[in-house]
């Protein structure tokens, strides 16, 4: 028999993580769970309500409308940003002094705080004094994002594309530069066309980074709050009231803590499940 | 003649990658480009393939000037150090890809794929994806893709460098035969002298963008034209020393001397360079021609049944490769025997004598 020293000291090593996760994830989450099953009155008086708030949220047309808007928004920006990002990454120089220039230019939008982005685009798109707004109106279109739902959507999407396509570009560019030059040579010797090179070499090799890009963009855009809040405030009417804006209205505007907590949890579960589906779908072939 | 380079050079910016180079490679031969990293092997292969245009000079292929011809119009195939296959094609489709590009009938493609897969012993894996194969199998797929094109010129850029030792041995044995049967002219780039010797064929030694020697592999090894060729084709590196000839003897460091024999007897007095490979300086004298030198051990590397002893003798550092295990300590005095009958003698311009 070998004498083994048994002690529990290893727990001290994981303790910081446990404490950290408890304070920044578990405890807040449990607070939300706590609110979601109770009616809250002043003076910290609570009544247990069961799943009433969940039923109410899931059956509310208002929630359905916000969810639909959220899904549409995320779908649109993914459809634009991912192909556009890959296209820009493909057209960027592979070596030489321009590489760093391009990378810095690409990284710039990512460095701007979200509320600044919203404020910038708000002023930029104003129909009377904004550069973009005046230009569009000057071209003969009737454009006013504070009054027309379509214009509001157009501006919000454009703003997000401007802000976040860079992330896709940077990820795709990193993925592209990790492909050994020998692949391109082999393709040239085979006489493969530029499209074949993209379809059969670059795209398969980009699969992993694109999975990450799609996941990041999905989660981020699904939680978007600050920029549309600053740009349109969720309007006109509630045409750009996405889930998080709606949630804040319920939680802090109406101070309906129970429904807001229930909605938070549903919101959280939707993101979790959809991310999992995305990931599983995109990684399916990898594991075969 | 399969391929001929006529005064080919390649410069990129201010860097010269290839100095004026001419070489003729006969059809159907297995040629080896031997040189260290950055000696220009890959650049030469890329020039031969047509992936790069020479800065000056001409490239002739089967009696035709192909200098500016696009790579896909030449019948060349290339295999790389990395295992290059289309990642989302099955092994079958990977091997078939060069034929699909030229729109060959399906039946013929199938027949050829089966034949090549059998040659390379990857028939059971035709349905799998490259990522599911071992490195050796992946490289076999890449070789199959090169073979199936029935190219006249096959370029192999260190194809075994990324493989495990065992797999490397296995493929190294098969390679010359595979391509010999196909009738293609092969150019094989490697950094390892031992690999060149095992592969046989013809070897061109390459140093800093110029050929130093070209000929049958064993004769390039046995009769180097100059010190540079001998250096390129020796691992561990060849030992050298400045010597002088006075009367009928060679003298080293005024302490060691040996008789100049045969064709060297008639050499005029003067300064020369002697070169001998590590296995010709040993701890035990091999025959009467051995000359004793004493030095100090710098470091000893022991590999199984051989010892590589680095030592300093006079102002020189030499490497000895001896049989058996000799765990000599650093700084220890050591006596070694140089087999003078296996020495190369070079003149002051590092050209071989005799």
**Rg of chain A, nearest Å:** 24 Å
**What assembly state would you assign to the polypeptide chains in this entry?**
heterodimer
What is the strand content of chain B?
A: 35-45%
CATH topological fold name of the largest domain in chain B: Rossmann fold
Which word captures the global form of chain B? elongated
Task: Kindly state the percentage of residues in helix of chain B.
Answer: 10-25%
Tally the helices of chain A: 12
Total number of strands of chain A: 2
Averaged pLDDT of chain A = 87
Structural class of chain A: mainly alpha
The end-to-end span of chain A amounts to 44 Å
Percentage of residues in DSSP E strands of chain A: under 5%
Query: Which architecture of chain A per CATH?
Result: Orthogonal Bundle
Instruction: Order the strands across the largest sheet of chain B as they lie in space.
Output: 6-7-8-3-9-10
| Largest interface (C-beta under 8 Å) | A-B, 16 and 21 residues
How would you characterize this protein structure?
The complex is a heterodimer of chains A (288) and B (354). Chain A has 288 residues and is mostly helical. Chain A contains 12 helices and 2 strands. Chain A has a single domain (61-287), classed as MetI-like fold. In chain A, strands 1-2 form a two-stranded antiparallel sheet. In chain A, strand 1 and strand 2 (45-48) form a beta hairpin. In chain A, helix 7 (149-177) crosses helix 9. The longest helix of chain A has 31 residues, at 61-91. The two termini of chain A are 44 Å apart. Chain B has helices at 41-49, 91-101, 106-119, 135-148, 165-182, 193-199, 217-222, 227-232; strands spanning 3-12, 15-25, 30-34, 56-61, 64-65, 76-79, 153-157, 185-190, 202-207, 210-216, 239-246, 249-252, 256-259, 270-276, 281-282, 290-303, 306-313, 316-323, 333-339, 344-346. In chain B, the strands form 4 sheets. A 6-stranded mixed beta sheet of chain B has the order 6-7-8-3-9-10, sandwiched between helices. A 5-stranded antiparallel beta sheet of chain B has the order 13-12-11-14-20, with no helix packed on it. A 5-stranded antiparallel beta sheet of chain B has the order 15-19-16-17-18, with no helix packed on it. The model of chain B has no long low-confidence stretch (mean pLDDT 88). Classes of the chains: A mainly alpha (288), B alpha+beta (354).
